[in-house]
Structures are given as structure tokens and as C-alpha cells.
Specification:
Layout: H1 2-17, H2 31-38, E1 46-48, E2 52-60, E3 65-69, E4 72-86, H3 88-95, E5 101-112, E6 117-120, E7 126-129, E8 134-136, E9 147-150, E10 154-163, E11 172-177, E12 192-197
Antiparallel strand pairs: 1-2, 2-4, 3-4, 4-5, 5-10, 6-9, 7-8, 7-11, 11-12
Length: 198
């Protein structure tokens, strides 16, 4: 019962913080989460928002590392490790009541190069680290860049992972996600595994 209440609280928080996007783009995106996503492209090392205080510890920009999965291209553009001190009202719903968490953000572009409908879910990935952790992507905080791609379309956004290891100890990560599949659920490639270093 407690788990269901926690899940319901999380969902209600997400909906209560939702703001309509301008000009029809990113409709329904959480403004505060968006600020956290955008921080990895700024020179500022510390950013405060309603969610909390985010301190960038290390980042790598302009990676432009492309991985193919059938007709799908996933281009990892940057990676960032940061420390987040969440505000009290967000601790229980999003961060298991922790005073501090490590946030690893992987920014990427996903593109279907074919006219076919292809599915891939880069925001449902796993991450392993040199510190021995393995975690799944945080789907509440990550951008919705997965699903069906109807022909030659693309999506762009951040995939976010919460970790316990201090950000300054993370030097290498492995991003792992299932390959693309077609509308008949035929796999179009093997599992994707990408090694990234800070």
C-alpha cells in the first residue's frame, strides 16, 4: 500500500508541476526538470531551481558519438555528472528521502533514417559505472525520447540516472539499451552498449 501511495504521490506531483510548452513544442514538460536538463549545456557549475541545488562536477560536451541500431541512429552529444541536493518537498517523491544524490545526464538525439515505423526506447536504458553501480534510467525525470518513430523523424533530449556514488568518483560509465524493433517486434539489432568516459 505504501508503494502505491508513493507512486501516486509521484505521479500527482509530476502532473501538478506540468506546464504547457510554448509554440506547441515539448507540451506538458515540467519546467523545473527542464532547467535541470538544460544545465549541462551552460557554463554555470551551480544552478538552483524549485527541485533543489544542482552542482556540476564534471562534463564532456561535443561528443557526437553515433550508434546505429537498424535504421535508427542514436547520437550521444554530451554527458554530465552532478550532485543534486533536493529541496524537502521533492525528497520523498523523487529521491527516496536522500539529502544528496548523484545525477548522471546523457544528452542525445535519436533519428529514424527509414520510412518504416521503428521503435526504440533510449530513455529505458541501464547504466553501469566504474564504481560498481548499475541503475535504470529515471523515467520521471528523463525526457520522453523513446517509442515509435513514424518514418523519418527524430527526437532529442536527456536521459537521467540517479546514483549513490559521489560524482567525482565516476570516471567511466556504460550506457546499455535494447536495440530497435519493427512493428512485428522483430529485433533489428543486438543490444546497444556504449562506453563513455569523463
Amino acid at each position: 500500500m505504501k508503494k502505491w501511495f508513493k507512486l501516486l504521490t509521484s505521479i500527482l506531483l509530476v502532473f501538478s508541476l506540468t506546464a504547457c510548452g510554448e509554440n506547441g513544442t515539448d507540451e506538458g514538460k515540467n519546467k523545473d526538470t527542464e532547467e535541470m536538463h538544460e544545465n549541462h549545456d551552460q557554463d554555470d557549475k551551480v544552478k538552483e531551481s524549485e527541485i533543489g541545488k544542482l552542482t556540476v562536477v564534471k562534463q564532456k560536451k561535443d561528443l557526437n558519438q553515433t550508434i546505429k541500431s537498424g535504421p535508427m541512429n542514436i547520437t550521444i552529444t554530451s554527458i554530465q555528472a552532478a550532485t543534486l541536493q533536493p529541496n524537502d518537498e521533492y525528497k520523498e517523491a523523487f529521491f527516496d528521502n536522500k539529502d544528496e544524490v548523484t545525477i548522471v545526464t546523457i544528452a542525445m538525439k535519436v533519428e529514424n533514417t527509414s520510412e518504416d515505423t521503428i521503435s526504440i526506447y533510449p530513455n529505458q536504458a541501464a547504466l553501469t559505472t566504474n564504481t560498481g553501480e548499475q541503475v535504470d534510467a529515471d523515467m520521471l525525470l528523463s525526457d520522453d525520447i523513446g517509442g515509435e518513430f513514424f518514418g523519418k523523424v527524430n527526437k532529442e533530449g536527456d536521459v537521467i540516472f540517479q546514483l549513490d556514488a559521489p560524482a567525482d568518483e565516476i570516471t567511466k560509465v556504460k550506457y546499455i539499451v535494447d536495440g530497435a524493433h519493427d512493428t512485428d517486434y522483430n529485433s533489428l539489432s543486438d543490444q546497444i552498449q556504449v562506453d563513455l568516459e569523463f
